[in-house]
User: Which sequence fits this backbone?
């Protein structure tokens, strides 16, 4: 079981709700994933065109909601977004994400630390999306973040765990849960993150845009379970040279 | 009865005097769930919606939870 702040999760696969082709596909895929924590975004209401109400089916399925601050480019904007999200979704949990540059959507570490400190002081359960920076992750922990969410690769890139060496340091040093977020493009990427000792992964694009999102959700759920099981079992170490698995006896040689 | 005019997300809207935030959302056809709102850049918490009356010239920002990662 994974505990973050006041909540306990039996599934270590967290999911995003974005990019699904239609709402029913999202609802079915999230149900198949077994995920108990799903992210949502906030937008200014378009007075001309109505957005789908995706909230009702998520609540009906008993999901915990994790609003993000996507769209915020500064700490000040992120704090305002978090306060709005708290009202909209009636939760003090927030995925803090501040990415000023739309090309790579990389998180701004300075603004993120400032906002995390302010939000933690206001009683928010802050889960910051950050680069895989071990020093920053410690600083975020010190200002009161409930977990850290370092990236594997840029958001939506599906490139996998490109930050492995740094994730390993973060996991080694963290006293709060580490959730690998962003870049996880296939179940094997998720399994790798879990084998490294991540406490959870957050997957969105790889499920939402899969040919069959429901089947892909199941594949991710199994990969996350498998990776976690392997981590808990204790992986065998790596060496450069061969180490025989069979006894090297000379029984085929002529006597 | 005189109407008041407010601005919602950049769009002018006429309302009866003594319209609360709750009344406004009903008028617009929005469920309360998933909505957040600021009046003149101050967030109004949901518990205050029934008793917060909109004033002539108010700038209302209305936000909604949507799909996202």
Assistant:
């Amino acid at each position: 079981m994974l505990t973050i702040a006041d909540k306990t999760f039996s599934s270590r696969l967290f999911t995003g709700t974005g990019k699904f082709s239609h709402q029913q596909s999202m609802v079915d895929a999230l149900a198949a994933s077994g995920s108990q924590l799903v992210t949502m975004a906030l937008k200014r209401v378009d007075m001309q065109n109505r957005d789908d109400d995706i909230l009702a089916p998520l609540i009906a399925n008993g999901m915990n909601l994790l609003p993000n601050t996507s769209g915020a480019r500064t700490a000040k904007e992120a704090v305002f977004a978090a306060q709005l999200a708290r009202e909209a979704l009636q939760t003090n949990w927030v995925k803090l994400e501040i990415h000023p540059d739309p090309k790579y959507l990389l998180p701004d570490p300075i603004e993120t630390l400032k906002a995390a400190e302010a939000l933690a002081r206001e009683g928010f359960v802050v889960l910051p999306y950050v680069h895989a920076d071990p020093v920053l992750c410690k600083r975020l922990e010190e200002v009161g973040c409930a977990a850290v969410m370092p990236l594997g690769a840029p958001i939506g890139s599906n490139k996998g765990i490109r930050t492995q060496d740094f994730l390993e340091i973060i996991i080694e040093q963290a006293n709060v849960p580490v959730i690998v977020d962003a870049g996880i493009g296939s179940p094997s990427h998720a399994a790798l993150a879990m084998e490294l000792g991540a406490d959870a992964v957050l997957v969105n694009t790889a499920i939402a845009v899969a040919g069959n999102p429901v089947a892909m959700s199941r594949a991710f759920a199994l990969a996350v379970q498998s990776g976690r099981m392997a981590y808990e079992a204790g992986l065998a170490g790596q060496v450069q040279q061969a180490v025989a698995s069979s006894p090297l006896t000379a029984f085929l040689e002529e006597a | 009865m005189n109407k008041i005019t407010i601005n919602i997300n950049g769009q002018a809207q006429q309302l009866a005097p003594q319209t609360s935030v709750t009344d406004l959302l009903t008028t617009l056809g929005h469920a309360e769930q998933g909505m957040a709102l600021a009046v003149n850049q101050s967030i109004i918490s949901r518990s205050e919606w029934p008793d917060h009356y909109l004033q002539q010239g108010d700038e209302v920002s209305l936000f909604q939870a949507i799909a996202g990662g």
The interface with chain A takes residues 8-11, 30-31, 33-38, 43, 45-46, 61-69 of chain B (CB under 8 Å). Strands of chain B lie at 4-8, 11-15, 35-39, 42-43, 59-67. The helical segments of chain B are 21-28. The two ends of chain B are 47 Å apart (CA to CA).
